[in-house]
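Protein: Poly(A) RNA polymerase, mitochondrial isoform X2
Species: Pteropus vampyrus
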Amino acid sequence: LHPIHRLLSCPGTVATDVRREEQSFGSAETGSEDRTLKRFSEVQKERREQAQRTVLIHCPNKISEKKFLKYLSQHGPISNHFFYESIIDDQLNILLKEFQLTEENTRLRYLTCSLIEDVAAAYFPDCAVRPFGSSVNGFGKLGCDLDMFLDLDEIGKSDAHKTSGNFLMEFQVKNVASERIATQKILSVIGECLDHFGPGCVGVQKILNARCPLVRFSHQASGFQCDLTTNNRIALKSSELLYIYGAVDPRVRALVFTIRCWARAHSLTSSIPGAWITNFSLTMMVIFFLQRRSPPILPTLDYLKTLADAEDKCIIEGHNCTFICDLNRIKPSENAETLELLLKEFFEFFGNFSFNKNSINIRQGKEQNKPESSPLHIQNPFETSLNISKNVSQSQLQKFVDLARESAWILEQEDKDHPSSNQLWGLATLLLPSVAKSMSHTKKKKKPASERIKNLLESIRSSSTENSKNTVGK
Ligand code: GTP
Ligand code: MG
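Structure follows.
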């Protein structure tokens, strides 16, 4: 290739290392066996030569990488290639990497459940304590609470237990007026036990009159804020469904994390219960939006049900919660839209959604007429007569819509007017409330960039400390 073709370009590019002859960069580059360290001048020379054999090509988003490389290789062998995503796509993926649960944190969550299980086993041998919610559904952010489910259904099922001795001890919930009362009694004794004897369990609160009764406590050794429930098997199934949606396409988790961060930065969500949108509802909105793309990025829940086989069948309290569990049998989407485009379209979509008429329905993957008058209606995917966002007030919904419109507008401007180096750009413009305001009204009176970046970092830092503190008050 003639040097004139080694064009410098912007995001959405592919860089290829076209080698005319086989060159070895030696083991120093791969850091293996041979400990010969390269001189500075050698590295410089090699890198310069490498640069001369490299081209940077701007290509359309929807390109087939395989075909493109095949085409290019007609002009010379390609030793190496890198596809770059757009700047915003990279930022979304970085945000995901920085905030997602780490391997150690995930292990600590399962360990904490296992420790609580030991305590609960004093009353209910063979019970299981399982994590659910964002600790396991793929959308958990470092610092999120640990939702636990005390599973009593396994009791008596284990053969090992039955054959381990001559006696079998049976447990029985004595006659109580309702399942709810039984749940309250079970949680009440476990709460007492954790409070008096649970190692490292502090601040135990029994919140037994809530819609879903729970025991809340801090587990000091792990630092987690824990919510223990029982008789909440549907929530476990919801976690599995979200896990599947997050796993079938790599864009889903990055988009959900970004929307959650955006909502948090603008105080649309809070860790205190109230009239605001919850992270769970936001996740459902992203899933719904991705089902509405053309071609769809995510399948509908009804479709996942049609893929299910006999062993996937699951009915909980009369609700059909069946869907395919083997995610390898879900075909990948043919939609190749970038995260940047999806983010912008998400804001457009919900900035113009007819919330007054329509309900968000991930089971059917299309809007339905709203069955009741709550400002925001998101159908509970399994208990279909319920609305998971019944708590959201009209003013909170309006705030969401206004911010979505504003954010769509900001991303639109970014496209037109590529940012200059002294301005905030990309995701930062969406996460800093003061910047969002100043950009939407007038470009006058801007603070110096250095001060705005300082503010942004402060706001990210304080929102993460606030987050860890907030889990205490949740
Ligand atoms: P964060 O804790 O905010 O990171 O997200 P989360 O998904 O864990 O939410 P939360 O702790 O509030 O709730 C835990 C789980 O309970 C969720 O993942 C859902 O499965 C379920 N859940 C929460 N809110 C509702 C609701 O309003 N309706 C229903 N049906 N389930 C809910
Ligand atoms: Mg949670």
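Remarks: The chain has a mean pLDDT of 84.
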